[in-house]
Amino acid sequence: MREVEQRVERLMAKADSLGNLPDAPLGAPDDFSELLDVQFEMIALAFQTDQTRIATMRMIKEASMRTFPQVGVDEAFHPLSHHGEDPQKHERLVRVQAYQTERFARFAQRLASIKEGDGNLLDNSIILFGSNMANSDLHNNNPLPQLLLGKGGGIQGGQHLAMPKDTPHANILLTMVQRAGVELEKFADSTGPIAGV
Q: Which secondary structure element, helix H or strand E, spans residue 130, and what is its range?
């Protein structure tokens, strides 16, 4: 826990070195990888110490102008997401998405490294990772790629499910809450839980 506190202090010290700026929020620090890693570690520690059993995290705003020099992408994320089928822009967008997925994978590995009961913290979790867009150039969310991790609630992993066209995203959310033990028949525009998960 102390190590995470020290990492947060280092991030704050970098912000303090910017000098006299207005009191408005500064936003995310320049070291985006460290920011993501610290946020994921805080979630892992909160789960490990049973401070919470639910967390949500958005890696980046949909309309973000953040660049990703750590993977050689100096173009802002949002304009890049509207790639117009330009192969070069699409390749850079894939690099950004691969980077985000790698950061998330580190989080999943961290959860798997924490022993809990007869298994590990990842085994006892239900975690959804994904995007709000399938093709961001078209603002299309169908089919929406999502990854469900963990074995909490008896989730069956190791499979790829292709849902019928126009399956509501709320179906996976309904499946998650039902597997977590919440008695809920419908959520938003859900049409039912996903069978076989």
A: strand 127-130
Is 118 among the domain residues? yes
Whether 139 maps to a domain, the answer reads: no
User: How do residues 161-183 score in pLDDT, each as one tens digit?
Assistant: 999 988 999 999 999 999 999 99
CB-facing half-sphere around the CA of 141: CA atoms within 13 A: 9
Whole domain around residue 85: which residue ranges?
A: 2-19+26-48+63-124
| SS3 (DSSP) at 176 | helix
Percent of the chain whose pLDDT exceeds 90: 62
Handedness of CA 160, 157, 189, 191 (dihedral sign): positive
Q: Tell me how far apart the alpha carbons of residues 165 and 185 are, in angstroms, rounded to a whole number.
A: 22
Asked, for residue 120, whether it belongs to a domain, the answer is yes
Q: What is the pLDDT of residue 131?
A: 86
Number of domains in the chain: 1
Contacts of 150 (CB under 8 A, 6+ apart): 111, 122, 123, 124, 125, 126, 127, 157
